[in-house]
């Protein structure tokens, strides 16, 4: 699919078919946030103040992890302005919701709202996009990582989901810090360090064993849940020259009760079409997308999307394909030959001689082969 359209093109065609209330803030989402806030507070107090059996602490940790993740999904919605519009209240509520994940609202809006949404799946401008062959050639670390056997790398890649949101948030702080004006840099740092100060203070108060159940294990669980969604949002889609959500985004399907608990976070293509709309109305947006552009829309069950991620590499080749550099195995992306039901690859060696000399040299350097 090469005839791309910007997200506004699609939104303009769908918007007239949506009710006016779909474009208004939905304050009732805060009731769900309050329920999760009470669960988190009660769970942490129970672990901290009671001498419970480790099995009970483990069960509470699981509930806390799910609640941390759900609060992050709500914080994402709040900071898009779909719950409340008043800026100071939006940022305050967003900060509270993101507190367990230790991400500040000002950094999040810069990284996610103003950069990722504007430049989705752009090779150089999207901070969440995975690297291309050109970027692999320039990075000695990446070249070393991609010489690790694929099955081993896939295992560690999925294991790293338990820390990846936290690690990427810290990386984004370093990436965007200088983009803020001097007067805002102090706020950004405070919003980053205050949550960590709270959680490290809790460690000092209750000790390592209880802190593991009250915060660290829940954080790992929350990371895994959040990254389970985020890793499927775009990583099976191509890099694109135009911010076309039907080309660069994937919506996953989960049981209805999971959508309720996770504030419809699974509707990701819909979110990129209408980021300032409450996710409450995304099922309605999906209906219209599937009526108007059924062949362009990408959706699949969460389990199938994760399985496809496990079986494919994360380096882009010619923007529309994925490549395993060492073996020269090339896979399609969604809309470009990827069939999640039967994932197959072609051999780059078969057509490498047809590449321009510069491209041959890039592939040799990235893969470590001496001759093509």
- Average pLDDT level: 92
| Run of helices and strands | HHHHHHHHHHHEHHHEHEEEEH
User: Largest beta sheet: what is the strand line-up?
Assistant: 3-4-5-6
Rg from Cα: 22 Å
- Helix amount: 55-70%
> What is the overall shape?
globular
Q: What is the count of structural domains?
A: 1
Number of helices: 16
Which residue ranges are poorly predicted, with pLDDT under 50 across at least 5 consecutive positions? none
Q: Approximately what portion of the residues adopt beta-strand conformation?
A: 5-15%
**What is the straight-line distance between the termini?**
30 Å
**Biggest sheet, in brief?**
4 strands, antiparallel
Given the helix and strand composition, which structural class is it?
mainly alpha
Organism: Geobacillus thermodenitrificans (strain NG80-2)
GO molecular function: oxidoreductase activity, acting on paired donors, with oxidation of a pair of donors resulting in the reduction of molecular oxygen to two molecules of water
InterPro entries: FA_desaturase_dom (IPR005804), Fatty_acid_desaturase (IPR012171)
Domain Fatty acid desaturase: 56-300
Structure characterization notes:
α5 crosses α9 (161-176) and α10 packs across α15 (302-311). The strands form 2 sheets. The chain has a 4-stranded antiparallel sheet, with no helix packed on it. It has a two-stranded parallel ribbon with strand order 1-2. Helix content is 59%, strand content 5%. The chain has helices at 7-14, 29-49, 54-79, 87-98, 105-116, 133-138, 140-145, 150-159, 161-176, 182-234, 245-248, 256-261, 268-273, 282-292, 302-311, 357-367, and strands at residues 251-253, 299-301, 315-317, 321-324, 329-332, 346-347. It is mostly helical. It has one domain (7-130, 155-305). The protein contains 16 helices and 6 strands.
């Amino acid at each position: 699919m090469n005839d791309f359209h910007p997200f506004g093109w699609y939104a303009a065609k769908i918007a007239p078919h949506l009710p006016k209330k779909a474009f208004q803030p939905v304050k009732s989402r805060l009731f769900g946030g309050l329920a999760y806030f009470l669960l988190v507070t009660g769970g942490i107090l129970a672990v901290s103040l009671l001498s419970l059996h480790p099995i009970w602490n483990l069960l509470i940790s699981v509930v806390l992890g799910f609640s941390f993740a759900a609060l992050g999904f709500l914080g994402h919605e709040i900071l898009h302005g779909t719950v409340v519009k008043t800026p100071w209240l939006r940022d305050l509520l967003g900060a509270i919701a993101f507190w367990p994940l230790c991400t500040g609202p000002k950094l999040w809006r810069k990284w996610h709202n103003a950069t990722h949404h504007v430049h989705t799946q752009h090779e150089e401008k999207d901070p969440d996009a995975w690297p291309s062959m050109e970027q692999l050639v320039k990075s000695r670390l990446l070249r070393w990582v991609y010489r690790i056997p694929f099955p081993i790398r896939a295992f560690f890649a999925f294991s790293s989901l338990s820390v990846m949101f936290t690690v990427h948030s810290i990386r984004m702080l370093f990436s965007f810090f200088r983009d803020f004006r001097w007067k805002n840099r102090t706020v950004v740092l405070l919003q980053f360090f205050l949550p960590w100060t709270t959680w490290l203070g809790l460690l000092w108060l209750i000790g390592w064993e209880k802190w593991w159940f009250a915060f660290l294990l829940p954080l790992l669980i929350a990371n895994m849940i959040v990254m389970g969604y985020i890793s499927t949002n775009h990583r099976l889609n191509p890099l694109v020259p135009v911010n076309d959500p039907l080309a660069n985004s994937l919506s996953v399907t989960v049981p209805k009760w999971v959508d309720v608990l996770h504030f419809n976070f699974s509707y990701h293509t819909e979110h990129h079409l209408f980021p300032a709309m409450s996710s409450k109305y995304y099922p309605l947006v999906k209906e219209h997308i599937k009526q108007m552009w059924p062949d362009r829309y990408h959706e699949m069950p969460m389990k199938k999307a994760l399985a496809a991620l496990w079986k494919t590499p994360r380096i882009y080749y010619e923007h529309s394909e994925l490549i395993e550099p060492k073996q020269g195995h090339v896979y399609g992306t969604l809309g470009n030959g990827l069939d999640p039901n039967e994932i197959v690859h072609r051999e780059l060696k078969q057509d490498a001689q047809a590449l321009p000399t510069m491209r041959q040299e890039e592939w040799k350097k990235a893969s470590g082969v001496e001759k093509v």
